[in-house]
């Protein structure tokens, strides 16, 4: 089409001149046309043709990690949904360095950076960012009971430890240019989570973290607190090559869709839903007791959990919630021992000494497995949560909640549904027609939420232990 138009205009011109001019015009066309130029880079066409998308992220609690050989992480789950949205396979690449991420985009080894990256003017000079999908704010992290940073001038005279080439480093340099006199100590090989751990241990006094990272870390490092904000609200975004226009547009459409259909909130709540529930005293005691008490019982917990197919860390979290790892614990209702067995349950399972830790653990895990087997029609994750709820308040109330869910056109096999119907069973309007009557229906919700907090901490400690072992090998 371009050539025929040129022929009409330059009819009668010598052929060599026409060929040269045609070639020049075509070159300009291919350079200036955004759709053609977009094709050059690893964008939508290449991704769909290859049937896979390579996403680069970081190995962290926020982005991507593995637990029991299963990939997890907020950014990973978003990327998995995006690959599903495109109908392609997800390939995950890991790096911690921003410049390496940019190089991967430029040489085509990765199509998207999905690594919890703050959208900054400096980064926008190197990559094109999607619309923001999460609001965050940079905070100074200090050890509890140390001086808080109530205004930026309070940073004067302090030493702040961060990784180089991060948004934290950029922001601190901006503050120095504004005349605030403090020292920046750079750590090339320490991710933010490890710097927070060093603050918690008292090895360093200050670091900087985005609010989402800081909140996610405080369960594991309760001694490290958000001491004061040093930036305005910012946004996280995914990055692509500046010429990957159609891919960027597709990412923006994807985020709009998952925020509208609830998938984004589902993933967000999985990783951040409970981070506001923070009890410093409780978590400090928990960290102390898993060091001083858990080791006494972990061999028996591991054996019982393995026998019945449970993660021993989950059982440990449940035991802590039940008794705080106190083998002599006794509730006002008469539940006894590490797993707070009622005498009737203990008798039915052949327990001779309810305060014997080994017998109590074995019977408690057996009881949980019996409940788990009752809900064989339920998907695995929901089945576990429903079984834990049944352990807490009895399977009869769970069945009442499931029947109520059916009446309310909710899925009786979904824990999300039962989390709505169980609290209703404390109101006469609902429990008067139930088989098992009144139920303190909010208790199992709090019970499970707390277990999952402890479980998350124990999982994270296991990952950190594995990483340390790998470095030593």
Describe this protein's structure.
By secondary structure, this protein is an alpha/beta fold. The chain has helices at 2-9, 15-32, 34-40, 44-50, 74-86, 98-107, 121-124, 167-177, 192-201, 211-217, 245-261, 263-272, 280-292, 294-308, 312-323, 343-348, 357-374, 380-393, 395-407, 415-421, 428-431, 443-472, and strands spanning 52-57, 65-67, 70-72, 89-94, 112-118, 128-129, 134-136, 138-143, 159-162, 183-186, 206-210, 224-229, 234-240. Strands 1, 4, 5, 6, 7 and 13 form a 6-stranded mixed beta sheet that branches. It has a 5-stranded mixed beta sheet with strand order 10-9-11-8-12. It has a two-stranded antiparallel ribbon with strand order 2-3. Helix 8 links the parallel strand 9 (159-162) and strand 10.
Beginning-to-end CA distance, first to last residue: 64 Å
Helical fraction = 40-55%
- Helix/strand-derived category reads alpha/beta
Output the number of helix runs.
22
Q: How much β-strand is present in the residues?
A: 5-15%
Number of strands: 13
Q: What summary fits the major beta sheet?
A: 6 strands, mixed
Key traits:
alpha/beta, six-stranded mixed sheet, disordered C terminus, 473 residues
